[in-house]
Automatic annotation (TrEMBL):
<protein>
    <submittedName>
        <fullName>Alpha/beta hydrolase</fullName>
    </submittedName>
</protein>
<dbReference type="InterPro" id="IPR029058">
    <property type="entry name" value="AB_hydrolase_fold"/>
</dbReference>
<keyword id="KW-0378">Hydrolase</keyword>
<dbReference type="Pfam" id="PF00561">
    <property type="entry name" value="Abhydrolase_1"/>
</dbReference>
<feature type="domain" description="AB hydrolase-1">
    <location>
        <begin position="24"/>
        <end position="248"/>
    </location>
</feature>
<dbReference type="GO" id="GO:0016787">
    <property type="term" value="F:hydrolase activity"/>
</dbReference>
<dbReference type="InterPro" id="IPR000073">
    <property type="entry name" value="AB_hydrolase_1"/>
</dbReference>
<dbReference type="InterPro" id="IPR050266">
    <property type="entry name" value="AB_hydrolase_sf"/>
</dbReference>
Length: 263
């Protein structure tokens, strides 16, 4: 993977990894992660595509946004990043918070998105679920980070899951607390922002999750897919929130089929 920096407005930079040639595939990770969280997909798809995996603002080496940044600010940042690369329309995939960003870009700037995919996305959380995630966001603003709870929620005891857990733990330990808190707050309050705009998404849309993900449920995936004009839900049995790391072959197969869908 080649490490690159893209200059953006206001002296900000976006850091990303790039590998391969061909049709562009842009990947956006979830809150607390970094561009390397897509490594199984970068390695697989770079044989056929120009894969670009970007650090979200305030993550990895990308400049953070203002402390009060909203989900729309992250969407606008992503639009600026894609535009700055000069690639035209891209295949855009996001995981977790990255899926909310992907939905926002796809709904508001369809000219920039050839195909879109959301992995482990959230859609119209229940009031109880929303309150819980907002509470976690507020705790982060105090400088307290609980790493063990999400690890227990996201991973089981199998060897592949524990390998992934060790990587995720290292990324969470490495995160910029200010950037993490800002992104988590936007994520906590952002699930409904573009939820009613799925009908504006006409490109091929893959919506994927695992049956073991209690926050990004199969029901949410099916609802999102049903709202899109050309949506397909894929639910992988017995997988949790970090499905792209714990079941990479199944995720890559689903994404390959999506990327081969005619537009």
């Amino acid at each position: 993977m080649i490490s690159k920096i893209q200059q953006l407005s206001n002296n900000r930079v976006a850091h990303y990894f790039e590998q391969g040639e061909g049709e562009p595939l842009v990947l956006i990770h979830g809150v607390g992660m970094q561009a390397a969280a897509w490594t199984p997909q970068i390695e697989y798809f770079s044989k056929y595509y120009r894969v670009i995996s970007v650090d979200m603002p305030g993550h990895g080496q990308s400049t953070k946004l203002a402390d009060d940044a909203s989900l729309q600010d992250f969407v606008n940042w992503t639009i600026e990043f894609i535009t700055a690369l000069g690639l035209g329309a891209v295949n855009l995939a996001g995981h977790s918070m990255g899926s909310l960003i992907t939905t926002g870009v796809s709904a508001t700037r369809p000219d920039l998105v050839k195909r879109m995919a959301v992995l482990n996305g959230v859609y119209k959380r229940t009031p109880e679920a929303k309150d819980a995630v907002i509470q976690r966001a507020e705790e982060l603003k105090t400088g307290h980070i609980d790493i063990e709870t999400p690890l227990q929620r996201w991973f089981g005891d199998s060897e592949i899951e524990q390998q992934a857990a060790r990587k995720v733990k290292s990324w969470l330990e490495d995160v910029d607390m200010s950037g993490y808190a800002t992104a988590y707050s936007a994520f906590a309050r952002g699930d409904a922002v573009y939820a009613d705009q799925w009908s504006n998404i006409h490109c091929p849309a893959l919506i994927l999750t695992g049956t073991g993900d209690p926050n990004s449920t199969a029901e949410m995936a099916i609802q999102m897919a049903s709202q899109a004009k050309n949506g397909k839900a894929v639910v992988i049995e017995n997988e949790r929130h970090m499905v792209n790391l714990t079941a990479p072959d199944k995720v890559n197969n689903a994404m390959q089929a999506w990327l081969e869908t005619s537009v």
